[in-house]
Every structure is written in structure tokens, then in C-alpha cells.
Amino acid sequence: MGQCTDLPGLPMTLVANQLVASQLDCDLTMIEAIYKQCCKTNEAVQYYIGENARINQEKQGMCAMGKYMKEVRLPTHHKKGLIQSNWIDLSLKVFTNIGHCGPIIGIKRLGEIDENLFLDAACSSGISKVNAAKNRKAWLKKIQGHIWHPYKRITEDGRSEEVLDEEDETLKELKAFEALKEMDRYNSSGRTIVPELWNYKEGRKVTVVEAIDCLMKKIMDHEKEKNCNKRRRSSRFRYTVWHNFLLQLQWYTVH
Predict the structure, then answer these.
(1) Domain ends where: 140, 158, 192?
(2) For residue 161, is it within any domain?
(3) What value does the mean pLDDT take over residues 107-127?
(4) Over 50: is that where the pLDDT of 4 sits?
(5) Which residues pair with 108 in a beta bridge?
(6) For the chain, how many structural domains are there in total?
(7) What would be one Pfam family of this protein (predicted)?
(8) Range of the domain at 138
């Protein structure tokens, strides 16, 4: 009798269980969605943590590099003058021994009167070559002397500067404007002739790159004449070594 009275309540219990199960499914789905979102959020957080660490590391590296450059820069400037001076001395010695590198690069004596032009002008006036050579030496001494001062002071845009006076009678007679201008530019204090590696084609000093390239070309040509494969390989190796050295030397001379 007791069991029969409980039977009518069974359907209500099943419905309640189904509702609970359905609610649990919804809760599980929501939990899974929340979990996935948490995973994505965690990945994003980890990514930004890593990026922040990388940025901080780069900042530290840049600060360290900046500190290093500050420490190195001062002695580098001190070394620059010494390197340039040694480079000039070495290159002049080398080119004095090997001669000009074709018609373009060679040693020019800045401030020297062009001998050919002077002799041509003298001979055209009926002066012998011997007397013309003596006159040239006399004029050269006059240029190097400090008594003759063919300069004038001009003012332009409020700035005063000293320039060569092209109307100076002695200067016009000598026609040594270019020689004196070179001497004044490169050694105005001593008024002496200055030997310099010169690019005759462009009318300027030779750069480090041009000088090294010229030397390497002469080495390669010399090795080709000997027609020795072993020496060719050696010369190519030296060419590479010199160019690596050149890059470092050029950096020092520019910075």
C-alpha cells in the first residue's frame, strides 16, 4: 500500500532531475567558455610579460652600448690625428717608391710652381732654359718668403677674411696664383711646399679608399706579370685583408 502511494510522484522527480542535469550542462558549458577565455588571457599576459622583458633587455643593451661609446669616443678622437698622420707618412713613402698610379693618382707638391708652364712661358719670351730654371728658383724663394704678402682683407655678410689679391702686380707677373693658393691652404704658417697624394683628375686630395685601391691594383698587376697561381691567391688574400683594414681605417678617419 505504501509503494502504490509513492508511484504518482515519480514523474515529477524525473522532471526535476532532467532540469538539474540541463542546468549542470549549461554550467559546464559556461565554465569551459570561462576557462578558454582565461587561457587566452593568460597567453596574452605571458606574451606582454615576455615583450616587456625583451624591451627592458634591449634598453639595458642600448644603455651599455651608449656608455661604451662614450668611453671609447674620447680616445678615438685622440687616435684620429695620429692615425691620419701615420697614414699620410706611409702612403707618401709607398708612392714615392712605386711612382704614380696611372695618370690620375700621384704625389703632388702643393705650392710648387708648375715647372713646365714656367719654362714654356720663359722660353716663349726668348729666355734660355738655364736662365729660366734660375728665375724659377728665385720666384719660388719669393713665394716661400714672408716679406711678400699678396693678400687683401674683404668683408662679406659682416664677416672679414683674408684672400689672395689677384690684382697684385708681382702675383700677376708670376702667374702663380694656384701655387700660392695651395700653399696658403695647406701650410699657410710655414709657406713651404707640402707633398700630398693627389687625384689629378678631380683636383683634390686622394681618399684612403682610392689610395688602397691603387696599391692593391699595382700588387695584382705585379702578380699577374709573374703568372704564378700561388702568388695570385696570396695577393687576393692580401687584397681582402687590406680592404678589411681599410674599412676600420676609414671609420677612424671619418668619425
Answers:
(1) 192
(2) yes
(3) 62
(4) no
(5) 196
(6) 2
(7) XH
(8) 112-192
pLDDT digits (tens, 9 = 90+) for 190-206: 556 677 778 888 878 88
Read off the pLDDT of residues 20-70 as tens digits, 9 standing for 90 and up.
777 777 777 888 888 888 888 888 888 888 888 877 777 776 676 666 656
Planar angle of CA 78, 83, 84, nearest 5 degrees:
105
Assess contact for 196 and 186: CB atoms under 8 A: yes
Both 59 and 119 in one domain: the answer is no
pTM: 0.38
Same domain, 56 and 120: no
Which residue, 192, 215, 233, sits at the end of a domain? 192
